[in-house]
Amino acid sequence: MISDTAMGRIFTQISDFVCGYPLFILLIGGGMFLFIYSGAIPLRRLGASLRALARKSDGEGQISSFQALMTTISSTVGMGNIAGVAIAICMGGPGAVFWMWVSALFGMATKFFEGTLAIMYRGRNAAGEVVGGPMYVMTEGIGPKMKPLAVFFACFGMVGCFCVMQANQLTESLTTVITEPMGIPTTLTLKLIIGIVMAGLVTVVVLGGIKRITSLATRIVPFMVSLYFLLVLIVIVLYADRLPGVFMQIVRSAFDFKAGIGGITGAAIVGARRAMYVNEAGVGTASLMHGSSRNNDPVREGLVAMLGPAIDSGLVCTLTAIPILMAGNFDVDGVKGLSIALNSFETLLPGWGQYMLVVVVTFFAFSTMFSYSIYGVKCATYLFGEKRGGWYKYLYLFIILVSCVVSLSTVVCVMDFAFAMMAFSTMSTILYLSPRVKALLKSRP
Description:
Elements: H1 4-18, H2 21-37, H3 41-44, H4 46-54, H5 65-76, H6 79-92, H7 95-120, E1 123-124, E2 130-131, H8 134-142, H9 147-160, H10 164-179, H11 188-206, H12 209-238, H13 243-253, H14 257-270, H15 276-279, H16 285-290, H17 298-305, H18 307-327, H19 338-348, H20 353-384, H21 386-389, H22 392-403, H23 409-442
Antiparallel strand pairs: 1-2
Helix pairs in contact: 1-23, 2-7, 2-23, 4-17, 5-12, 5-18, 5-20, 6-14, 6-18, 6-19, 7-13, 7-14, 7-17, 7-18, 7-23, 8-9, 8-23, 9-20, 9-23, 10-20, 10-22, 11-20, 11-22, 12-18, 12-20, 18-19, 19-20
């Protein structure tokens, strides 16, 4: 009989394989195809995306296009934008950042197709409200025969949308930067107290439903991105003489052997496993949100959705990379993430830099926890109906509490695997239906 430890190792190996190059080929390769197939729409229609965001949505749905975008960004701008970027630089050197920019372009193309399909093929819940998501794109776009794939996505979606990493990493950052320097030992009781407070704060928002969460997202996302931008701007002003060297490092090392292979590995194994998790292009979470938009114009919603990767994978990841490269403390043994970012800010802004980063990390983590609850509830509702699916919220809150006090190596592998399964089902559907999106795009003036 295989022991629990052996089972854990076997599952970890399976997860590492599936979430490695197979996922990279599907997401980055598929994104490259969609980028070319759309005629480089992220470059051609960026201005149209900004104009589409400003237009009022007046169709059927529960939220506006702007609220949909802010909520998807609140879920994608999280730990991956800080810890994930640090890991990528640690693995692939400064050139990894260049490949993140490239993958952001491909992610924008994927999000365009994903957002467009989310409006093209929607369903209705028991209350008669318009709802969307990969499940409906599969069954309404391809046909009822795709019901098993829709159920497959929803099952893994419930697991993948547990915010295990966010809760655990936030607990670690709070204990490392705040309680331990105060002489308070990191005990199970302390972690439990942090978990209870964290779950309590999330409860106030999550139990309010999609409208409360999206309303909060429209306020918190611009604030937290602006706060992070201001923090990095202070670093840039103080160390302006290092900025040209940072970008020279990125460009030069992007094409040497280490950065070319290691950097792509960072964007693949970290990007397609963590900061796939940064922009979630092709995973299906964006469809769950954009499908609820009060927008009856699929192409316009696709243009709005396209802005997501530009903000999270483009802007926010670059904001993280600049201080890390300026501090130059990324050449360490092994692979490290959040600790590198914290040390970088403390090196550049001694005495207060790491504390400000903890504040930013706190906003990032909570915004993700708020938004992911919507995704999980939508998947549970699809499987079990409105009434029974609503119980997922309580399971979600319990998982947040547990995540603060347990070792998560195996659990994180399970969630990584779940996200990969979501991506495989979603991305294959997007690629299959991409000709319909292109035909609709061509029919536009």
